[in-house]
Recover the amino acids of this structure.
């Protein structure tokens, strides 16, 4: 699974990729739930993240095309396979032509464009409760608002000293003030879930309305970070805890 970083294109590596993708494509090609082949996550976008790729995008674009267009795509588009759409990366602006008879020519450019292809959207600065914060995109293939897990889960996998000091979950924020009392920390974890639930309601309702907007035609949304990769809710909630409002998980909200 390729994500968020440039990859090489020397022949030994390409042969290994070709073999693995071919094997996996044969394994899952017949599944009815398979809707699209995705080459990678955010690699075209990541060209701007690193000084080496940002300074020489042409070189890294050649590497990208050799790996995902010339190697991965033929491995999943084989005679006898189900005819399933292929995108070389997400987000992207898609190919120049969607006619299967035409050669695959990638539409390079701003991979975060709202006018073409799909969009990944995160905003840790602006008002998450304002519908105008969210892009008028064709397809939002990844977006999210962070929250913490339920308190009774959180305390099983953390230490009490972690409840009183700044423990960031993301470089953009989601830390806690110094010296926060444990009861206040419990309330804070719950409020992050309320905020997440309300933000998702605003965003998804907004995009559903944009399905009929001529300048958007938003046709789908995939949310990310519903409690992130937190532990399973494997223990019973103490009696009366939900009534006290301190143990409610995002799934309950």
């Amino acid at each position: 699974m390729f994500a968020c970083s440039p990859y090489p294109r020397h022949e030994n590596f390409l042969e290994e990729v070709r073999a693995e993708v071919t094997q996996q494509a044969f394994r899952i090609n017949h599944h009815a739930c398979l809707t699209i082949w995705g080459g990678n996550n955010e690699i075209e976008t990541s060209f701007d993240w690193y000084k080496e790729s940002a300074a020489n995008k042409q070189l890294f674009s050649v590497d990208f095309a050799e790996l995902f267009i010339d190697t991965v795509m033929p491995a999943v588009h084989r005679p006898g396979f189900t005819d399933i759409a292929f995108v070389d990366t997400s987000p992207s602006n898609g190919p120049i032509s969607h006619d299967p008879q035409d050669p695959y020519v990638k539409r390079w450019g701003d991979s975060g464009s709202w006018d073409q292809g799909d969009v990944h959207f995160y905003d840790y600065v602006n008002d998450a409760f304002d519908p105008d914060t969210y892009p008028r995109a064709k397809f939002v293939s990844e977006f999210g608002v962070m929250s913490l897990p339920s308190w009774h889960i959180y305390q099983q996998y953390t230490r009490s000293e972690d409840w009183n000091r700044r423990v960031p979950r993301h470089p953009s924020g989601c830390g806690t003030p110094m010296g926060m009392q444990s009861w206040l920390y419990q309330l804070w974890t719950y409020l992050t879930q309320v905020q997440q639930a309300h933000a998702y309601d605003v965003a998804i309702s907004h995009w559903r309305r944009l399905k009929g907007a001529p300048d958007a035609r938003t046709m789908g949304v995939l949310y990310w970070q519903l409690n992130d990769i937190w532990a399973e809710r494997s223990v019973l909630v103490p009696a009366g805890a939900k009534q006290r409002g301190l143990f409610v998980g995002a799934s309950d909200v």
